[in-house]
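Z., the sequence and structure:
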Amino acid sequence: MKPEESPPPAPFSEQRGELPFPSRRKTEGKVHSDFANKNPIESSLRALGGLSEYARRSRRNWLYQVFISIAVVGVALWTGLDAVRLALVILSIALVLAIEILNTALEVLLNWLQPEYHAIAKTVKDLAAGAVLVTSFGAIGAGFLLFWTPVVGLTYEHIVLKMIGSVLIILLSVLAWASGRAKR
């Protein structure tokens, strides 16, 4: 007598429920991305729609970062930064915003995969938020170097040592604060 065979496991989407947004469709047993076979303009419009949906869902950090980014670019134009420095400012801003988007995407995915509290999910979310923080500090440091000479007139040699000292003081302060919170 043959032991009864158990049915095959349900597809992953049926085990966990659907994502909060429609990203895939099923056709003839195959899964296709909604972005397949679209022209670049349509794909770009979908990406912008995703960003606006993300911003609409009251992600304050994103809105603050966009506001600060616009202000920084305005100050860069007002101070007359040369093209290379302006490009570096814009790249720094884009990097911070991209890491923030990836952080949020990871949070959404983890919330979908693990709706209940789990220590590993918390650690992953904390690390992703830490990546945003590190990138933001890097952008602030780059902005400091890029804006300092045109605005104040000091050379990089004068400010590099002061900046390194300031960053170390800020980093040590944040680490002391974080270790104090961890002990609670």
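The two ends are 61 Å apart (CA to CA). The domain at 82-183 is CATH 1.10.287.3610 (Helix Hairpins).

Let me know what you think.
H.
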